[in-house]
């Protein structure tokens, strides 16, 4: 009985080792031929990264939440999102995506907040629809509640 137990235990170890190796090899990174994309200095380029497939082209979508945006030139460090073509791009060049935000530094975002685009951290988070030609979702990390602060200060002035 002890011999059968040792044999079963040995088979389990071999099976476990085989499964571990197959899992490791199923997700590997090419360390010998990496694709390296670079963005603006001090922009946190690469803070978020997403692989995307659109119009028969593979892209790497890269968030740079502290970047200055070409499309929002009057705003200080609003953040930017870049698209980098994976194939047919020997210079590894990335181009900024126009997110349609414009150059206005402030916009109302409802009754209780005032949007402040300076240091907005746009591109801090990226998501995509899991299908070819799906949409990309880009979000920022900040939303300032200016109205509530003003209301709080007004209450203290009248006390």
UniProtKB/TrEMBL annotation:
Designated name of the protein: Integrin alpha-9
Choose one Gene Ontology CC annotation of this protein and give it. external side of plasma membrane
User: What Gene3D superfamilies would the database entry show?
Assistant: Integrin alpha, N-terminal
Is the keyword Chloroplast in the record?
A: no
Name the InterPro entries on file.
Answer: Int_alpha_beta-p, Integrin_alpha_N
- Keyword annotations: Integrin
Alphabetically, the GO molecular function entries are: integrin binding
| Gene name, Swiss-Prot/TrEMBL | Itga9_0
FG-GAP repeat spans: 28-93
Q: Which GO terms describe its biological process?
A: cell adhesion mediated by integrin; cell-cell adhesion; cell-matrix adhesion; integrin-mediated signaling pathway
Q: Does the keyword Nucleus apply?
A: no
Q: Which PROSITE patterns match?
A: FG_GAP
Supply the source organism for this entry.
Liparis tanakae
